[in-house]
Design brief:
The structure is a single chain. This protein has 283 residues and is of the alpha/beta class. It is 38% helix and 23% strand. The chain is built from ten helices and twelve strands. The strands form two sheets. It has a ten-stranded mixed β-sheet, with helices on both faces.
Length: 283
């Protein structure tokens, strides 16, 4: 997978009127910082149980659920246009309706043609069931990096201090490559290695080859080797975010195939649920 050398096309999906301003604030800030075009999809989501529900549903009930989703999409679009009015920005807006189970097709197809997707935190109080598949679809089906904006966090389109989680996996390397436009502009990037293996080709210099690769791209990089002194890797990373005063985290998105094309693994979900700074992810 080859990633863009700059972020010229950004994409965001708006599915909840309560999150429109929060999400667009991050997307607009990024588009202005990168001088990028912003594509926006306003999606009304039919959240009923597909399969079980529609098998016995009358035409009237079916029509009502679609009409409700259409009204949601119209409300989201109106709010988005209000926020975009007068903003110095190149943008395009589309709206539509989707069943919850079909969101992947809509989001993934559009995410494929963006350099970066900006989405709200998919887990937490008041977060709808559609936010998780939207994030998964952009990452796993669209194969596009995603920037997750945590609830209440200020936009950081040009982060100064970045924590880069490194475990030698292809996902982590993909995230590092995809984030290069951000890493090059940071004052410092900390490659964080937790409990490196005692036996292996890189045991004497954990993170060394990645740091060399990044340095050759002009990244100001340091290596932090940490012990897993807390129950989960995500706990250690989040504590280090605070310790080093990071304003963004970069990490690989981990998933596994089952009934969907891919669903988030535990480490990815933990991080997305508890992050307090923007998280840049790629798969």
């Amino acid at each position: 997978m080859t990633y863009a050398t700059s972020f010229n096309t950004l994409f965001t999906v708006l599915t909840d009127i309560a999150l429109v301003e929060e999400t667009l604030t991050h997307a607009i800030a990024a588009a202005q910082a990168y001088d990028a075009h912003l594509d926006i999809l306003c999606l009304g989501v039919d959240r009923s149980q597909t399969g079980y529900y529609y098998a016995g549903a009358s035409a009237v009930v079916l029509q009502e659920t679609i009409a409700h989703a259409r009204a949601e999409a119209d409300e989201i679009e109106a709010r988005a246009r209000e926020l975009l009015n007068g903003v110095a920005l190149r943008w395009a807006l589309d709206s539509g309706v989707s069943q919850l189970a079909d969101m992947g097709r809509h989001v993934g197809a559009r995410a494929r043609f963006a350099d970066l997707v900006i989405l709200p935190q998919p887990y937490g109080e008041g977060r709808g069931a559609e936010l998780e598949p939207a994030t998964e679809s952009a990452l796993f089906e669209g194969r596009t990096p995603v920037l997750i904006a945590p609830a209440g966090a200020a936009p950081v389109p040009e982060p100064r201090r970045i924590l880069l989680g490194w475990n030698e996996s292809s996902e982590a390397l993909g995230a590092a490559r995809a984030a290069l436009p951000l890493l090059r502009g940071a004052e410092s990037v900390h490659v964080v290695v937790i409990d490196p293996p005692a036996h292996g080709p890189n045991r004497s210099d954990p993170g060394g080859l990645l740091s060399q690769y990044l340095a050759r791209h002009g990244v100001k990089v340091e290596i932090d080797v940490l012990s897993k002194t807390l129950p989960r890797v995500s706990d250690v990373l989040l504590r280090h975010v605070t310790d080093m005063d990071a304003d963004m985290m970069v990490m690989g998105a981990y998933g596994h195939s089952r009934f969907r094309e891919a669903i988030f693994g535990g480490a990815t979900r933990d991080m997305l649920e508890r992050a307090t700074v923007p998280v840049f992810m790629a798969h």
